[in-house]
Write a structure and sequence with these properties.
By secondary structure, the protein is of the alpha/beta class. Helix content is 42%, strand content 16%. The protein contains 13 helices and 13 strands.
Length: 346
Amino acid sequence: MRVFITGVNGFIGSHLAEAILRETDWEVSGFDLASGNITSLLKEERFTAFRKGDVFKDGRRIEEQVEWCDVVLPLAGVAKPAIYLKKPIWTYELDFEQNLRIVRMCSLYDKRLIFPSTSEVYGLCGDGELKEDESPLVTGPISKMRWIYSCSKQMMDRMIFAYSQEYGLNFSIFRPFNWVGPRLDTFKDAEAREARAVTQMIYDVLHRGRVSLVGGGNQRRSFTWIGDAIEGLMAVIRNDGGRAAGEIFNIGNPFNNCSMREFSVMLIEEMKKFHAFSQQAEAAKLSDTDAAEHYGETYDDTDNRVPSVEKIERLLGWRPRTPLRDSLRMTLEWYAKAGKAGAEYL
């Protein structure tokens, strides 16, 4: 199988490329703005091509790779609340308009598309457990820019289904629920207050001495170890018996649901166990921050988000295995060992 990944240098893309080269005989081709996370992979014979470029400018180079491959994963996109609140137009242009071009290429060349949707599409849905084919997708007021990311992804999901209905597009869609692990974001992102939860909190403990909890940290999320998540995604790609075709799958861990306050307390507890972090972790404080003050007036949020994984377990045999505390410990082990090799992240 030939797999083409845009955003291959990112958090999901780099871990996926590693898994493919480690566990299968598939070939990989990648496209991204940089290659720092995949430098060692580029030496692999089955990493057949890496194209450095911008999805906004290099459409022809992307099309060439779509023609070459069997499966396309367009992972390039915006997934950080701090960014899509500041740059809503760019978020829409990248997450919807540029990826729609790739969807059309897949339809034109009869390639299988595996699209990264998001748990954000469920928005303010009040279901206790979010189900791919049943839960309503509920977003907030137009003035709250939080939802432009959600709407961009939801509209892409709907367009993919439309292309399947009208033109026979072969597709699967997966919805990540708060995947965590090494290389999620950099400390440069965190310094600018643009990193996601785990990276931002580690940085804040080490460099600010306190963790800011937006809205008191009462929001609940379901965190998923990147290793488990990639196993789920690999099952979608393998598509045994064609059971992933035309389906949407949540990839998350409902057993790791906790409040952001509980998450931060657990993270600090684990940091205290590492010599490299223990001094700062012992002194770290928690502080409540007003959401509008932290993110601006266009921010909005949902109280809880718990994925149903019944469908992916039933059809593909995948189930998350890693508890949250173990996920945090393994993430911190990576940071502790990164040293100069991980300077970008430290």
